[in-house]
């Protein structure tokens, strides 16, 4: 590859990296441009670890021939099991263990080398293999994301020429920098969603990070906490407490997200969430849909836990509607993007009242009145109550018992929620 072509490809990578071209498209564009300039790549693979609660890292693939392999993939932990065995037999692990930055392999020798996966490459007609490990350095690393792995093959019988190896040594670091840049943006979005919530994360990443910047919104608020969690935590071993909380947090959070809500806070075993939009009747129905999905989730979860001899529970849920301040609240160097206001205090009091009236769901009169006529048919009053710390008494509502007891009513309610 001529110097002018090399520089043109570097400029393309830099420009596309700055504009945020997806990593799989960066790799595809890189490989196709190399081939167009006479550097006959047959396959490219780039792998980078990341910061994610489930995945250890991500990879991107390109091939010169049609394949059923996806051009982007995620992988879990390589710390144990078959994944660990495969990793320890890989070329990349060998390079890390021996301090190599580059490794060139004649794939005719692949069967005798004992590395995982490269034998398959030889069987598919690839002749020459080049691998790189580009380390980021202490200031450039994010957790386990401390280097970028890549490997390249050609089908040419003579393999990569010396000039082609030199070209790839120049070009791959620029590709790596563009991919690392994309992954850092993705990490920021992931951490934002995981720790702030989906909408709050988007607000922060769009630049709403100034202290005191809030907006008044009308929202349906959800507050839930687990039944008897303190007693359960005291009766089980310390190593069981976190799995117990995680099981039920998953059972609560998934239906909130599935119904279009946003989880704002996890407070011990409590969950504060909101549903909002232009049509508040739809937001109310979404909250009821989430509650219904939660009851299904918890029934399945309790069946699994009971079969394993582990303690089970459910949750009290309060639903309320009102005006809240939504935005950045806190000190100059420690902010929280959340909701505040009397409505937040009231919804937690409503959830607490569930214990006293022995109902797993309580909704405020404001929530009930804003439902459409079809929705109000499924809620019944439990009476009028004065909430602790709240100056006025109000009627509280729960699901009509027929929703659980009568199959036709259950079906009708589910059709209403889906509507």
Short description:
The N and C termini lie far apart (60 Å).
Features:
six-stranded antiparallel sheet; single chain; 16 helices; 419 residues; 14 strands; alpha+beta; eight-stranded mixed sheet
Fold and architecture overview:
By secondary structure, the protein is an alpha+beta fold. The protein has helices at residues 3-19, 23-36, 81-88, 91-98, 110-113, 118-123, 162-196, 198-205, 229-235, 238-258, 280-307, 342-357, 365-369, 373-376, 402-405, 407-418; strands at residues 43-49, 57-63, 72-75, 102-106, 128-135, 147-154, 214-226, 262-267, 270-275, 315-330, 335-340, 361-364, 379-386, 393-399. Strands 7, 8, 9, 10, 11, 12, 13 and 14 form an eight-stranded mixed sheet that branches. The protein has a six-stranded antiparallel sheet with strand order 3-2-1-6-5-4, sandwiched between helices. A hairpin with a 7-residue loop joins β1 (43-49) and β2. α1 packs parallel to α7.
Query: In one word, what is the shape?
Result: elongated
Tell me the number of strands. Answer: 14
Q: Outline the biggest β-sheet.
A: 8 strands, mixed
**Topology pattern, helix = H, strand = E:** HHEEEHHEHHEEHHEHHEEHEEHEHHEEHH
What is the straight-line distance between the termini?
Answer: 60 Å
Specify the structural class.
Answer: alpha+beta
Beta-sheet strand percentage? Answer: 25-35%
Low-confidence stretches: none
Report the radius of gyration as a whole number of Å. 28 Å
Number of helices: 16
- Mean residue pLDDT: 92
Helix content: 40-55%
